[in-house]
UniProtKB/TrEMBL annotation:
Membership in a protein family: Belongs to the zinc-containing alcohol dehydrogenase family.
Protein's name according to its UniProt entry: Alcohol dehydrogenase
Regions that span the bilayer: 167-193
SMART domains: PKS_ER
Xref: InterPro entries: ADH-like_C (IPR013149), ADH-like_N (IPR013154), ADH_Zn_CS (IPR002328), ER (IPR020843), GroES-like_sf (IPR011032), NAD(P)-bd_dom_sf (IPR036291), Zn_alcohol_dh (IPR050129)
Annotated Enoyl reductase (ER) domain residues: 10-316
Length: 342
């Protein structure tokens, strides 16, 4: 089968021929129809997130089942499916509680084993991790859900418990941030979006942001939101943006950290005085369990959410490596990149 693979950190990801993967007894093999090109894959390729080499990147995918293991009961060949980027083991305390996104035994295509920049990809524990796609959701849209849209949905609905009528601050309007803007608006929140890029701010406004700002100024945000936002989401990941998100909260507000805090920011402090005095909550968010996908998919079927508008570019599998490497520089397209796989 054709696949995009790199054998060394930072080596240009090349199109290669690989054997078709074996199907686990409890797993499934998917014919990949579309796969997202995500910055998390870029982090692995650049060595920020160590992975075994050689590696086929890709963890945002949708496709059709071509093989199932003998232990799989809920899915069959021909089913149209997707899966979270975190695949839970299905048997630990966290998985049994519905929190597979923090499974201590998790696997991740593109990180722990070959991913979806290929004609086929393996999903382990298929009955637990696969998600059946409604007929109304095409493969490119399903791939766009990937880790960015699903992560934002989990962050806002389960972690921050965003309610209609509340104020939401989104810092950073890349794939995660724009997803959060769209989801927040669909849930009935009033949204303030922050990004230094005028193009990103324009995009956020078109997706439902009520106000757009070039920087997160807590005083201005408090003025716009009548005393501070109920929920802040840092989609960028830095000591400055996390601190600004916390400082922009009103009393008893909730800050959710989605952007990865890397390098010198990994142990960044927070303004603990306001956290204690105002009884603020600081929450992490990591992906979304397969069990939570039906709620998200129903919002898409009902027309309340349309992730396809976030897709800025669709390329063929052969171009996916170049698109991944292009993340070394400024974004070349206003939206997510999805590779179509025949």
């Amino acid at each position: 089968m054709r696949a995009i693979q790199y054998s060394q950190i930072g080596q240009f990801p090349e199109l290669v021929e690989l054997p078709e993967p074996d199907c686990p007894r409890d797993g499934a093999v998917l014919a990949v129809r579309a796969t997202g090109v995500c910055r998390s894959d870029w982090h692995a390729w650049r060595g920020h997130d160590p992975v075994p080499l050689p590696m086929v990147p890709g963890h945002e995918f949708a496709g059709e089942i071509v093989r199932v293991g003998p232990l799989v009961r809920g899915f069959r060949v021909g089913d149209r499916v997707t899966a979270p980027f975190v695949n839970g083991c299905g048997g630990c305390r966290e998985c049994l509680a519905g929190d597979a996104q923090v499974c201590p035994n998790q696997t991740q295509p593109g990180f722990t084993h070959p991913g979806s920049f290929a004609e086929q990809v393996v999903v382990r524990q298929a009955d637990f991790n696969l998600v059946r796609l409604p007929d109304q959701v095409d493969y490119v849209t399903a791939a766009a859900l990937g880790c960015r849209f699903a992560t934002s949905f989990h962050a806002l609905t389960r972690q921050a418990r965003l309610q209609a009528g509340e104020w939401l601050l989104v810092i950073g309007c890349g794939g995660v941030g724009l997803s959060a803007v769209m989801i927040g608006a669909a849930l009935g929140a009033q949204v303030i979006a922050v990004d230094p890029s005028p193009a990103a701010r324009d995009r956020a406004g078109a997706l439902g942001a009520d106000h757009t700002l070039p920087s997160a100024d807590p005083e201005l945000i408090a003025e716009l939101s009548d005393g501070g936002v109920q929920v802040s989401l840092d989609a960028l990941g830095s000591s400055a943006t996390a601190s600004a998100g916390v400082r922009s909260l009103r009393r008893r507000g909730r800050h959710v950290q989605v952007g990865l805090m890397l390098d010198s920011h990994a142990d960044a402090g927070l303004p603990w005085g306001p956290v204690v005095a105002r009884e603020l909550q600081v929450l992490g968010s990591h992906g979304m369990a397969a069990s939570d996908y039906p709620e998200l998919l129903q919002l898409i079927v009902d027309g309340r959410l349309d992730p396809s508008v976030l897709v800025g570019k669709v390329v063929e599998l052969e171009q996916a490596g170049a698109e991944l490497a292009a993340m070394d520089g400024p974004a070349q397209t206003a939206g997510l990149v999805v590779a179509r796989v025949s």
